[in-house]
Design brief:
mainly alpha; 2 domains; 4 helices; about 50% helix; about 0% strand; NAD(P)-bd_dom_sf; SDR_fam; oxidoreductase; oxidoreductase activity, acting on CH-OH group of donors
């Protein structure tokens, strides 16, 4: 999904996803696994800045869980 005014975010996220795929293919030949963690929308204070309620609801609905992620759920990844 493309969100207005998110050029740098979407470009960098796409680059990381493609880099991960390329590394996985290249390093897989050596039996090295490559993973990336790419959480979907997370309901942080920074996330809500400049977003309309309509946009927040739309992004919540298309998220795999049908809602925004919770920041505290990502803490286990540290």
């Amino acid at each position: 999904m493309v969100t207005p005014n998110y050029l740098l975010y979407t470009a960098s996220k796409g680059a990381i996803e493609q880099m991960t795929r390329a590394l996985a293919k290249d390093l897989g030949q050596r039996k090295i696994t490559v993973n990336t963690i790419a959480p979907r929308p997370i309901g942080t204070d920074a996330y809500f800045v400049g977003k309309t309620e309509q946009l927040v609801q739309m992004q919540s609905k298309i998220a795999p869980a049908g809602r925004l992620g919770k920041p505290e759920k990502l803490r286990i990844l540290r």
